Amino acid sequence: MATSFEWPWQYRFPPFFTLQPNVDTRQKQLAAWCSLVLSFCRLHKQSSMTVMEAQESPLFNNVKLQRKLPVESIQIVLEELRKKGNLEWLDKNKSSFLIMWRRPEEWGKLIYQWVSRSGQNNSVFTLYELTNGEDTEDEEFHGLDEATLLRALQALQQEHKAEIITISDGRGVKFF
Amino acid sequence: MDRFVWTSGLLEINETLVIQQRGVRIYDGEEKIKFDAGTLLLSTHRLIWRDQKNHECCMAIPLSQIVFIEEQSAGIGKSAKIVVHLHPAPPNKELGPFQSCKNSYIKLSFKEHGQIEFYRRLSEEMTQRRWENMPVSQSFQTNRGPQPGRIRAVGIVGIERKLEEKRKETDKNISEAFEDLSKLMVKAKEMVELSKSIANKIKDKQGDITEDETIRFKSYLLSMGIANPVTRETYGSGTQYHMQLAKQLAGILQAPLEERGGIMSLTEVYCLVNRARGMELLSPEDLVNACKMLEALKLPLRLRVFDSGVMVIELQSHKEEEMVASALETVSEKGSLTSEEFAKLVGMSVLLAKERLLLAEKMGHLCRDDSVEGLRFYPNLFMTQS
């Protein structure tokens, strides 16, 4: 998997691993880091990570270049992702996080679009059906991890387009 | 000194002469006494001293009275000496030059050398203690075979006493030396108080004293090393003095600046200017204050302070921002550079080279790579590349 991943040019540029003092330069640098983290996690189907794992992962540690992004700078990148809505801390100590290459609202939108398209409003689905059912095989959200799915549905719930319910063997959702 | 007894100087039967030396002076402890030039004789039993001028004056100490001996090497203007530590005088001692004294040691000063050999022989005699085996007449058989316990106690106490005396002596000397200094410091404090009060009076009664007089007075204070904050408050950021100085600096620094590419660090300027002056050197404060006025006086140089706090003098015609463009070219050619590498390439001091690179970074032309390998600057591809 890792071999098919294409690293961006910044990954081979040593200054990428030093937090830039110039504000404008830093903005560009952080933007590049955010998109790298998201595409890396998407390809590796990694929906959650601990900070410790992140430090040693090839994502922040370019062994060949002999450069690693220091942990304080990693924290800054993660905070950027959180502000953008792509990251959620899973614990109070900020030691592990959920990473969503698409924001929950975006996922919610895609799911709702499929529901509408297939004329299944007012239907009830189990969570499993949504992500692993035959009907959704061609959809982008097929195979989505439960944590992200839940947040996507919660976003829809906020918009009154869905409601998360408890059913016999777990949870489900009703679309309106 | 009270251990000495008068003697005829003639050796007894069983007593043999070991060595003798002319030109020896005796000290009672650290003090010189009247016995300043004599011949010192060492026998198997005694240490005899005879005055060179008056042969009748002759005295001796039994070797058994000696606790131990030390060497004191010669110094500038000082002869080599042997220090002889003595047991206290026995109560039944015969007459000698002194009836009592406070010191438990004497010094023998070898003004005509010979100390080394004498010391060696005396040590030998002390070790061999031949006087114990060859009894001579009663008169000096005083501490022949003393009980070990008692002697040891006396010996150690004697040594301790001697050390204590030496310490007191040293302390006394030091205190005496510093007495003058404390007196000076008291006077200096009074002077500082006085000048402070005068300075304050001047501050309060501004109108009564002319500007020139005040400046003169303040320069006197300055020359005594008393800086007066009143100067800055009264005259804003500069005085006549600083203005004159600024004009002078502009004259001195024009050529050196041109030689160095139009820019010099303030420390370089300080060294250059003071070296040129030779006398009446400038203080750093005066230099900075004068430089602060350069731009206001429309002189062809200016003082510039970088973000890092580094201060430089630039020619007005020098445009550091333009230099940045050429710096970028240089860095791009080489891919990346450290301050030292850049300094070497361009022929600048590392300090100024670093400032230029930092300025380039601030302007967004360069970015940095900070690792264990050091600080390197790269062209800012974040901005130029998509």
Automatic annotation (TrEMBL), chain A:
GO terms for biological process: macroautophagy; protein transport to vacuole involved in ubiquitin-dependent protein catabolic process via the multivesicular body sorting pathway. It is found in: Cytoplasm. Its main location: cytoplasm. The keyword Phosphoprotein does not apply. It comes from the Eukaryota. One of its GO terms (molecular function) is protein homodimerization activity. One of its GO terms (cellular component) is ESCRT II complex. Keywords: Cytoplasm, Protein transport, Transport. The keyword Transport applies. Belongs to the VPS25 family. This is Vacuolar protein-sorting-associated protein 25. It comes from Rhinolophus ferrumequinum (Greater horseshoe bat). The lineage of its organism: Eukaryota, Metazoa, Chordata, Craniata, Vertebrata.
TrEMBL record, chain B:
SUPFAM superfamilies: PH domain-like (SSF50729), Winged helix' DNA-binding domain (SSF46785). One of its GO terms (molecular function) is phosphatidylinositol-3-phosphate binding. One of its GO terms (cellular component) is lysosome. Coiled coil: none annotated. PROSITE patterns: GLUE. Pfam families: EAP30, Vps36_ESCRT-II. Residues 1-138 form the GLUE N-terminal domain. GO terms for biological process: protein transport to vacuole involved in ubiquitin-dependent protein catabolic process via the multivesicular body sorting pathway. Keywords: Coiled coil, Cytoplasm, Endosome, Protein transport, Transport. The keyword Protein biosynthesis does not apply. It is found in: Cytoplasm; Endosome. Component of the ESCRT-II complex (endosomal sorting complex required for transport II), which is required for multivesicular body (MVB) formation and sorting of endosomal cargo proteins into MVBs. The MVB pathway mediates delivery of transmembrane proteins into the lumen of the lysosome for degradation. The ESCRT-II complex is probably involved in the recruitment of the ESCRT-III complex. Its ability to bind ubiquitin probably plays a role in endosomal sorting of ubiquitinated cargo proteins by ESCRT complexes. Belongs to the VPS36 family. Component of a complex at least composed of ELL, SNF8/EAP30, VPS25/EAP20 and VPS36/EAP45. Component of the endosomal sorting complex required for transport II (ESCRT-II), composed of SNF8, VPS36 and two copies of VPS25. Interacts with VPS25, SNF8, TSG101 and CHMP6. Interacts (via GLUE domain) with ubiquitin. Interacts with RILPL1 (via the C-terminal domain); which recruits ESCRT-II to the endosome membranes. Interacts with ECPAS. Component of the endosomal sorting complex required for transport II (ESCRT-II). PANTHER family: VACUOLAR PROTEIN-SORTING-ASSOCIATED PROTEIN 36. This is Vacuolar protein-sorting-associated protein 36. It comes from Rhinolophus ferrumequinum.
